[in-house]
Specification:
Elements: E1 10-11, E2 15-20, E3 23-28, H1 34-52, E4 66-70, E5 78-82, E6 85-89, H2 94-108, H3 117-128, E7 133-142, H4 147-154, E8 157-163, E9 171-181, H5 186-196, E10 212-223, E11 248-249, H6 251-258, H7 262-278, E12 283-284, H8 286-315
Parallel strand pairs: 11-12
Antiparallel strand pairs: 1-2, 2-3, 4-5, 4-8, 6-7, 7-10, 8-9, 9-10
Length: about 325
């Protein structure tokens, strides 16, 4: 029997729609851009590396957006709250990851919770390293059934506002139609087991009850990462090179990067992050940066010597 508290969402290949106020609201679906999903993935890699090193988990901006909903007919209609919102697998792989996460959780219960961290991290890393990530939806669990839940039952539109750390301050606004789903729904099961893998870690407030899950279907994506505005110019997008970073960079490395001309910084960022990914690094360290820079300077010197030798041969 369906729950009559929330509205039915009709999800088509190209549109997502619902009925409210005696009319149909229909929106074209959009895919999440790689600049956004890549940022989410790299944020998770960095967090997993931190947990692996037994570090303290900071505020996780790429997992905890501000969820904005509307309480229609009230003096202050905007409701906000930080919620954990995660990536989803493509539909044909949901059962695989649900079973993987469930089995990993059950094994973890057989021993001391902290001793199972490596096993649990291996499970979630297998997902974010795969080609199974959907770019058509995001997932979250509902706990308290208060403002956000009440508003989405009435009018299932929401905005997710993501903000990252400096120096880039990546920021995205995801406008979405929100489907509320019960525990038997595949999306709920994946969100639930994803949460269970870290439910009893220190960075979570342990919860026992998750009545629903949310499926966010994006209908608009806005990249709101800040950029320098020229004096007296129109507000046209001129993103700084740092906006292209997808990995964490150590502060000392950023100081070194600032010394390079801006037109060179993009190239440095690209080749350094490529090297970091090849080695499975979650961040760019001074050691890696200096290694890449030294190799780059050596190649430049070799190219200059080659040009000089060719020039000398031509003079002869």
């Amino acid at each position: 029997m369906s729950d009559t508290r929330y509205r039915e969402i009709v999800v088509g290949d190209a549109h997502v729609a619902f009925q409210a106020d005696g009319r149909e609201y229909s929106y074209p679906r959009v895919r999440l851009p790689k600049s956004f999903t890549g940022w989410l993935i790299e944020g998770r890699r960095a967090m997993y590396a931190l947990l692996e090193g037994r570090g303290h988990a900071p505020f996780f901006g790429s997992h905890l957006p501000v969820v904005v909903t509307c309480a229609r007919g009230t003096d202050f209609p905007i409701n906000t709250g930080n919620k954990g919102v995660g990536l989803a697998p493509v539909p044909q792989r949901v059962d695989h990851y649900c079973e993987l996460y469930r089995a990993t959780f059950e094994r973890s219960r057989q021993a001391a919770w902290e001793s199972s961290l490596a096993d649990r991290l291996a499970a979630v890393r297998s997902f974010i390293a795969s080609d199974d990530i959907s770019d058509e939806m995001l997932l979250s669990l509902e706990i308290f059934e208060r403002g956000t839940f009440t508003n989405l039952c009435d009018f299932p539109l929401a905005t997710l506002h993501y903000t990252g750390d400096g120096p880039v301050y990546r920021s995205f606004q995801i406008n979405a139609v929100v489907q509320i789903v019960p525990p038997e729904h595949p999306a709920y099961r994946f969100a639930f087991w994803s949460r269970q893998l870290f439910e009893y870690d220190a960075f979570h407030i342990t919860q026992r009850h998750f009545p629903y899950a949310y499926v966010f279907y994006p209908v608009e994506v806005r990249d709101k990462t800040p950029y320098p505005r020229r004096e007296g110019a129109q507000a046209e997008a001129q993103p700084q090179p740092w906006a292209e970073m997808t990995l964490l960079w150590d502060g000392e490395v950023l100081d070194l990067l600032r010394r390079a001309p801006q037109f060179v910084q993009r190239f440095i960022i690209r080749i350094t992050e490529e090297r970091a990914r090849q080695r499975g690094y979650a961040s760019v360290t001074v050691q890696l940066f200096n290694e890449v820079r030294a190799q780059y300077m050596e190649k430049r010197a070799q190219a200059a010597a080659l040009r000089e030798s060719r020039h000398g041969s031509g003079d002869a």
